[in-house]
Write a structure and sequence with these properties.
mainly alpha; 17 helices
């Protein structure tokens, strides 16, 4: 709440020095200006437990929307994924972060897609982007829909206009704060310039870790990674006839390409993973849960240190490695079943 403290003292919350007295660490305020109104509500209570209760309510509402989107939902699987998937729920409760709001909105998006309400889903996509900019890439999943180019561009436009309209209103009410936010995206304290590790296991930063101080090699690995993800998506769309499944895999692919994935952000991938694996056999579901839930937990707790040390790369980027594994399992299973 350091950003709210600074704002209430008539200071610019996007200047780190203005909020360090409140947060006691190098934790910049990274949300758009209009989100200060939302955070003021929780600031009023001055109690983190109120915020955590709100998180629980969002999780419960997410379960509701997923259940309403299907005739036979697998409650147990979805709840297990929510609680244990990527060890991300733990990070949300630990840090009191806001990624579960994005999870909630993603649940609403998929519910609307299931009901063929594509324009409403695009609106929610834009709304989610107004909270934190990165979800705009999820609009790319609309490109996988079996729709005309005009309809797809309309959906992407709705998402963009929704975000743009909210930001314009924010600018009108406080132009200086909106300008400061824009400058913070490219300044020295930009979120994109975060260092990697367990607190920021973004795949691209993992590639930097593999090839430190060598932008050519890490850049080449990143390009290969992007090519593999998009290539897998292309083959998936060619081998599958279920429009919803194609969109869902497209959404997961867009998540794979995010330029910044914090440990609490991985919970956003739970919804597409659920829809893609819910019809798997029990044995395959267990394999998925081992890779998506147990592996990150063991790496975080560092149980292996008692037996033999593991490379820091595996420990620091366990969540990304789990993401790679589940993406590969889903893609391979789709290819295998289609080639029977």
């Amino acid at each position: 709440m350091g950003g709210v403290d600074a704002f209430n003292q008539n200071k610019d919350p996007y200047i780190l020095a203005n909020i360090q007295d409140y947060v006691g660490d190098k934790l910049p305020y990274v949300y758009p200006p209009h989100m200060l109104i939302f955070f003021e509500i929780f600031y009023f209570f001055q109690n983190i437990e109120i915020y955590r209760l709100f998180i629980v309510l969002l999780l419960a509402t997410s379960v509701y929307f997923i259940a309403k989107s299907e005739d036979k939902p697998d409650y147990i699987l979805y709840i297990v994924l929510l609680v244990t998937g990527f060890f991300s729920a733990y990070w949300n409760f630990l840090t009191g972060n806001f990624a579960i709001m994005s999870l909630f909105l993603i649940s609403v998006m998929f519910y609307l897609i299931k009901k063929d309400k594509f324009k409403e889903s695009a609106f929610v996509n834009g709304l989610m982007t107004s909270i934190t900019l990165y979800p705009m890439i999820f609009s790319g999943a609309f490109l996988t829909l079996k729709r005309s180019y005009k309809e797809i561009l309309t959906l992407i436009g709705i998402a963009g206009i929704t975000f743009g309209a909210i930001f314009v209103v924010s600018y009108i009410f406080n132009p200086l704060l909106a300008q400061s936010f824009t400058q913070s995206l490219i300044g020295n304290e930009s979120q994109i310039k975060d260092t990697g590790g367990m607190s920021n296991p973004t795949p691209y930063l993992m590639f930097d870790y593999i090839a430190p101080n060598n932008i050519l090699i890490s850049g080449a690995i990143s390009l290969i990674y992007i090519g593999l993800v998009l290539g897998a998506l292309y083959l998936f769309t060619k081998r599958n006839t279920d429009p919803f499944k194609i969109y869902t895999f497209g959404f997961l692919s867009m998540f794979m390409l995010l330029i910044r994935i914090k440990p609490y952000s991985f919970i956003m991938a739970v919804v597409p993973v659920y829809f893609l694996i819910k019809d798997y056999s029990y044995k395959l579901k267990i394999a998925v849960l081992l890779s998506i839930s147990l592996f990150p937990f063991l790496m975080y707790k560092d149980f292996w240190e008692k037996f033999f040390p593991l490379p820091d790369l595996i420990i620091y980027y366990a969540q990304s490695i789990s993401l790679f594994a589940i993406f590969a399992i889903i893609w391979y299973e789709n290819m295998r079943t289609k080639n029977r």
